[in-house]
Write a structure and sequence with these properties.
Blueprint (H helix, E strand, L loop, with lengths): L2 H7 L10 H6 L15 H5 L11 H9 L3 H5 L12 H5 L6 H14 L5 H13 L7 H9 L10 H8 L3 H12 L1
Helix pairs in contact: 4-7, 8-10, 8-11
């Protein structure tokens, strides 16, 4: 690593918000954040971390404890969590790591920091009832093979179920505009 890269990675005191950890600890799912003493069990047992060079639940928790709000909420790695709860199950301090990450994701989404792929999935769910659009080529191939048609989604029911969930509606509205 070059000296310029080291300097770029340094954290400035002005980038830290000391009240951030308390804000998270007040939210449902974030109550046990400050129990974490950075043992690393969450990361060593995480199935995603085993295959990712960047995803480290321990690092997300520590950045949250240190008040690195903008850095955490703007992090793409925040969205790599598979919500398998292995980290929570194995934590010796009973920190609900996956729940803290969910709280952070919700905060990021409220700020419009949701990755594009999730915005597209949300829009697709509202439009078709499915998380992804089924390519016309796949529909034709099924017909050619004599397979029955795929079941139709029920977007009206999905929209009715999700009515009033502002994060979902926001994501979809922004996606349609984009």
């Amino acid at each position: 690593m070059t000296q310029a890269e080291i300097v770029q990675k340094r954290v400035k005191a002005s980038e830290m918000n000391p009240s951030f950890k308390y804000e998270i600890a007040q939210m449902h799912g974030g109550e046990k954040l400050m129990r974490c003493f950075q043992c690393g069990t969450c990361t060593s047992d995480c199935p995603v971390a085993k295959f990712s060079d960047t995803y480290r639940p321990r690092q997300i928790i520590r950045m949250t404890q240190l008040g690195m709000k903008d850095k955490v909420l703007n992090s793409d790695t925040l969205w790599l969590c598979a919500s398998c709860f292995t980290c929570t199950d194995r934590c010796p301090q009973d920190v609900e790591v996956a729940n803290v990450i969910r709280v952070l994701r919700n905060m990021a989404a409220e700020r419009g920091l949701m990755p594009q792929v999730f915005k597209e999935e949300a829009a697709s769910i509202l439009d078709t009832g499915y998380a992804y659009r089924i390519p016309e080529l796949r529909v034709k191939k099924r017909e050619t093979l004599g397979l029955p048609p795929l079941p139709k989604g029920n977007p009206e029911s999905v929209r009715k179920s999700l009515k009033g969930i502002s994060l979902f509606e926001q994501a979809c509205t922004k996606e349609k505009v984009a």
